[in-house]
Amino acid sequence: MAIKLEGIHNPFRVFVPDELEPKDADYLWCDNNRYERLVDPNNTFLNGPRGCGKSMLFRVLENDVQRLRLKSLECERRFTSIYVPVKSYVVVSPEFAALRGKQSDYYINEHILCLHVLSALFSRPERIFDEQELSSEEWRAFVDSWNAFHKENLATKDLVIKFDGLSVNAETVCRQFTATLEKLVSGVQHYARTVLDEQLSYTDSLATYDTGILKAIELLQHHNLIARDHYVYLLLDDADELNLTQTEILNSWIGRRSGKLFFKVSTQLGYKTFRTSTGRVIQRPHDYEHIDIWTTYTRSGFEEYQNLIADIVTKRLILKGINKTPQEYFPLDPDQEKKILDLKQGIAAEAEKEGMDRRKALDHAYRIVESEYLKQLGGLSKSSHTYKYCGFDTLVDVSSCLVRNFLEAAAQMYLFAKADQGRVVQQIPPEVQDAVLRLNAYKEITDEPDEVRAGFYYRFDSEDPASQRDSVALMNLVKGLGGLFQKMLLSDRSERRYFSVAFQDRPSEYLKKILDLGVQRGLFQRGFVGDKEGITKRPLYIMTRTLAPAFKLIVKSYAGHLSISSASVEQFLYADVSLPTMINKLYKSIVGAEYGEQQGLFEDSEEIF
Amino acid sequence: MKLSELSLKAKESQPDLFIASGSFEPRCASIAKTIDVTYLGKSIFLANQRNATELGPEEEVAVKCLGDECLVTRVDLESPSGIWSVVGRIFREHEGQRIWVDITTMTRELLAVVLCHAITAVRQSTDITFLYVPAEEYNPRERDIARKWLSRGCRIVQPIIGYSGIIVPGKPLVTVLLMGFELERALLTLNYLEPQKIILCSGNSNSSISAPHAEANEYFKSKLDALYSDRCTTHNIVLNDVTKAWGQLQMIVDQLGDVNVILMPMNTKISTVAALLVALDNPRIQVVYSRPEVYNTEDYATPSDNVVMFSLNDINAIQVQQSQP
Fold first, then answer.
1. Closest chain B C-alpha to A473 CA, distance in angstroms
2. Long-range pairs for B144-147 at CB < 8 Å and ≥24 separation?
3. What residues of B are in contact with residue A449 (Cβ under 8 Å)?
4. Which residue, A293, A317, A343, sits at the end of a domain?
5. For residue A45, what are the β-bridge partners?
6. A81: domain range?
7. Which domains does chain B show, CATH number per domain?
8. What is the mean pLDDT of residues A451-474?
9. Structure confidence by residue, pLDDT tens digits, B98-124
10. Same domain, A189 and A279
């Protein structure tokens, strides 16, 4: 069922990385900067919201893809990776979480976690072992050593692999290993269910980190099935879905720092704890490194992200035989561009007439031209909806540094355009780009049920009874800030573009919780802003630019941040019908402050991510 | 069968225990309002612990109708282990008795756990019958099919206790979705699971509870099919007959080969039972439950005056027969 890129219908289709053939994964991969940060032998947490490319990065680290990549680069491979997906697997079944507080909690959860990792190691050998290793006689030696170790060990005797009448080779070893593990998983599942009803003693084998995972890797290396000089990386994908006990166990493993085995752990910003089973906290950089994958690009410059998307688009267009630049494929609206250019020249000329020098006048015109254009549309004809969000750069901006956002929108545009243009879409018209971006923005904030918002409205909360209230508060916050940014954009101030807030004081725990929830759901991005003295930094919350069309905001390039009191923002959380009134009031108090009523209420300075 | 005929059945059967579950829906009281409670030994009414300590108006009606022999038992519907423990205790305490279970307004997670314990109880000589009151119409005040809704959002997607299956890393993931009216909930769940293949099952006008249901079902099915056209195959299944639906679903999963299978029952409770039976017969299959953010509590469904009854003992007999070589 693996994907073959040849003959693909929609060039912008979002793939589940796990289903990609090695050559397809290698072809599609463009992002070497992120890759370089992850390949060093250390424990690493890779954090970022859904869609920023974590699973794809793990796919590229897998050995079958590495073999192709390094062959073309003529480099030597220094590590062997084992991909361990977590989502939907038995390991996250609620019966194991429900053991919390029971005597067997730690042992059973470590056992199931070990079985899961071993299962990932043996269930698809072609992704881990080299071709010559798959047919090697060393497998027999490995099995003999493994069985000898576990036969002697009462606590793990059920991990012995049986070969009644079967010849021992790579295929049978992996198959028998997987079958044995499945039997053990069934047993421990059954135990976990029955223990919910009454205290039962567990009498079967228990795998541990040492007797299960480390032993398997040690023996595989000893028998040259994994190169002896290789580091081994366990790639745990979506680790925030592990239950609390399993998370503590994983942290304990990370805290062991074996020197040969390293953990690359991806999370969607919801990792439950950094405590170990004994209560110690693993710390960075001592125990692990940390990569916030979403902000990698904004840190090193937006241009890098733009180049990445351009590379991705170019490669995907080639798949359909289209030889165009991304800018040609996603064109601007020429009429709108001309009007904006004329307006800009007019504003600059006006400013020069009032005594501004040429450079300053142009800068002034650049900062306000789109705001003025929107005002013209909205103010005179009440048709601000005729402003078109289009052009490759705008699409990149709106994707808010999430590759999946870009691809999903592009895939929708391709589908819509295909209905008009027939078999191969040669260009995405501006009106199609605009329609899709608006649709995607509105579905984030609409209360209407609609199938189209599904891709952006995913929820995965803990079993918190207040989570529904929190969702409403988050939506109010988004609408409140979006409304406020819109009012600022349509004002007559010299600086009008805003997408972010920094608080002048410490926000309440509840406001912080809701903002963090927004970060987790991809509605906000967290950054930092330095104070004027450059001594301290304050957290900055940047609203996703995907929402820009819903609030008629301009997404291009520079935007300032509002420095504002946390109380004035916190009121949005509890808003209902009074939200527009609240926005107006806050806007007036900000504008009032500009005229000296409350100096220092807000300021302009550059964002530091 | 008409609801009005249920008392006669109760008179013949004389159940020792009647289990019902609470809801915001009027259908939670449909059987309680109709049945002659003098033929019931006692009743247990499962009410959601997370709601206010008081019962909702429809629940009040049901409990009042069930009389003094009705015991209200609180169950935390957001705690899978809590559901498992409460339901398990009820069936263990009534082993060997004759039990009627009204599954009409149970959440699918509660229904799955009830079925899992009930099948075990049936094998220990308990006599269990399930009852289901179909809806006359869903979201009746909304005439436009495209705008009908039963729930919004999706807070959590997780395997149901007793149905975790064996999902092996490396094998392709196939989801078998029994599509109902909850398009958004289905899409969010699929979006989370990211399957390589989707088997989309729904009813047609012959096999659905009613023609209007089939029409709406077809509309939502076609929407989903269009969104996942590259990986979706569709099947018609019988939605109003457990045994037939069970056989059809079994055939579908038998043809899937060596893959990971996740079942997403999101259609009627009858077809949900069928899907759950398939999972109980095939321990490698996982069943997931997606908990929505919010239900359409104002206008969910109107009750019909029909009731569907089926004996788990009969189903178990078929299961045993099928498992024999």
1. 14
2. B145/B215, B145/B216, B145/B219, B146/B219, B147/A449
3. 147, 149, 152, 183-184
4. A293
5. A265, A290
6. 31-293
7. 3-133+304-323 (3.40.50.11700), 145-295 (3.40.50.11700)
8. 50
9. 999 999 999 999 999 999 999 989 988
10. yes
What mean pLDDT comes out for the span A220-231? 91
d(CA A418, CA A435): 14
Q: Is residue A609 part of a domain?
A: no
Q: ipTM for the complex?
A: 0.81
Candidates A15, A88, A475: best to mutate against B (most CBs of B within 10 A) is A88
Picking from A9, A457, A465, the nearest residue to B230 by CB comes out as A9
Could A1 and B89 be called an inter-chain contact, meaning their C-beta atoms sit closer than 8 Å?
no
* Shortest CA gap B3–chain A (Å): 34
How many residues does this entry show for chain B? 325
Q: Is residue A600 part of a domain?
A: no
- What local confidence, expressed as pLDDT, does residue A504 receive? 84
Question: What phi, psi does B255 have (nearest 5°)?
Answer: -85, 0
Let me know if residue A25 belongs to a domain.
no
pTM for this structure? 0.82
- Rounded to whole angstroms, the Cα distance separating A405 from A411 reads 10
Longest dimension (CA), chain B: 57
Partner A contacted by B68 (CB < 8 A):
no
Mean pLDDT of A154-165: 84
Q: Which of B92, B162, B223 sits opposite A451 (nearest CB)?
A: B223
Residues in A closer than 8 angstroms to B192, CB to CB, are: 87, 458, 460
User: What pLDDT sits at residue A390?
Assistant: 93
Same domain, A54 and A157: yes
- In terms of domains, do A186 and A217 share one? yes
Domain count, chain A: 3
SS3 of residue A267 by DSSP: strand
A519-540: pLDDT as tens digits:
877 788 877 777 666 667 788 8
Please answer yes or no on whether B88 and A127 come within 8 Å at the CB atom: no
How far A596 CA lies from chain B's nearest CA (Å)?
45
> Is residue A556 situated within a structural domain?
yes
**Which of A269, A293, A317 is the C-terminal boundary of a domain?**
A293
